[in-house]
Amino acid sequence: MADRLSMSVRHFSRRFSREVGMSPERFVERARVEAARTAIEQGNAPLEVIARRHGFLTAETMRRSFLRLLGAPPSSYRARDDAVLRR
Asked: CA gyration radius for the chain?
């Protein structure tokens, strides 16, 4: 992104953080988690597939991000979503 705006990475990161309120890395992680969460809610694809489709290198990396941002791993999140749908 910095290259596209003809900025140094450091300058871009500072500007982005000032404007958005979080680092570019955090923003991307949140966007990936939200997209993966939606995919978990709307489908039955294996978590490894969902992880790769949404920019995580592995399901373990996605699990760590889910724990950090949502407080639960994707597997239990899917289980909760399934339980709500069965009601």
From this structure: 16
